[in-house]
Amino acid sequence: MGFFDKIKQGLEKTRKQMSDAFAALTVDNEEFFEELEDSLILADAGAETATKAVNELRAVVYKKSLYGGEQVKGALVDILAGRLSVGSFELSLGTKPSVILMVGVNGVGKTTTIGKLAAKYTAEGKKVLLAAADTFRAAAAEQLSVWAERAGCDIVKHGEGSDPGAVVFDALTAAKARGADIVIVDTAGRLHNKANLMNELGKIRRIITRELPEADLETLMVIDATTGQNGLIQAKQFADTASITGIVLTKLDGTAKGGIVFAIADEMGVPVKLVGVGEGVDDLMPFEPRGFAEALLS
What is the pTM of this model? Predict the structure, then answer.
């Protein structure tokens, strides 16, 4: 099943919000645009983003005299896809080794995402090494070890409560010695009011850039789509410390708040790079802006 079909299936709850606005389409009636704006806001696109998108659509509709439902949908797809185009959607992993630093609060699916990425890249023939730098949460390293075993990749871990920076240093040293292609670093589920944890994240980044100054480094923030605007707030709180290069949006298949991708792109200027639409390893998919917009309105 391709991206469009999986996203269409996963966005079922969100699409219901949007289809209601098109059900009795009369675009020469201002109520249509008001309904559409409400639907985008209900889907958690954010009030500002929804208003901008609808105003843009209104201008296109009147300028081009679009009155058919499919014409209007096509115009809206163009607008929404354009609003998502805020940077590269590809993961930059061209060096050997490359590093993926995973950040995000507890419970968003960070460890599962790491496991799925490890399985994906191992299946592609790459040598993957996991760094269990979440030493604050009990059993975090053990959970990551289970994923490493499933994926058939190496893992570097220390005891609970040990220095996360030391774990990362040892992992990078091991990666260089073993010829690893990709190092994926798990980090603690940091809360914005835990200054020491944020400082630790900054320290981990400094170790990576010091030990592998030429390496490609992706810093991916994992957000649970079901949290909607709360997820966006979390991302903003992490942004300064983490220098986020992309978003991983998990649990997209269980939410009516799929519009959050537009708010993230609009308000942060950071691309969504991966989306989770199920429990399987192949349900973590590269994000396609146009395919997403088309599926949302299909």
Answer: 0.87
Q: CA-CA distance, 89 to 169, in Å (whole number)? A: 28
Instruction: Look up tokens 């889907």; give the residue.
Output: 43
3-state helix, strand, coil in the chain (%, to 5): 55, 15, 30
Choose between 209 and 263: higher pLDDT. Answer: 209
State the Cα–Cα distance between residues 185 and 107, nearest whole angstrom: 17
Tell me the domains of the chain and their CATH numbers. 3-84 (1.20.120.140), 98-287 (3.40.50.300)
Q: What H or E segment, with its residue span, contains residue 129?
A: strand 128-132
For residue 231, pLDDT beyond 90? no
- pLDDT confidence band for 181 (50 / 70 / 90): very high
Summarize the confidence of residues 124-141 as an average pLDDT.
Answer: 92
DSSP 3-state of 76: helix
pLDDT for the residue 37: 86
261: CB partners within 8 A, 6+ apart = 84, 249, 272, 287, 292
pLDDT at 149: 95
Please give the C-alpha separations between residue 112 and each of 146, 224, 250, in angstroms, as whole numbers.
10, 12, 10
CA dihedral 55, 61, 298, 233 (to 10 degrees): -10
What's the CA gap between 48 and 267, in Å, rounded?
Answer: 9
- Give the whole-angstrom CA distance, residue 175 versus residue 228: 36
Q: Check if the beta carbon of residue 185 is closer than 8 Å to that of residue 133.
A: yes
> What is the Cα–Cα distance from 159 to 136, expressed in whole angstroms?
10
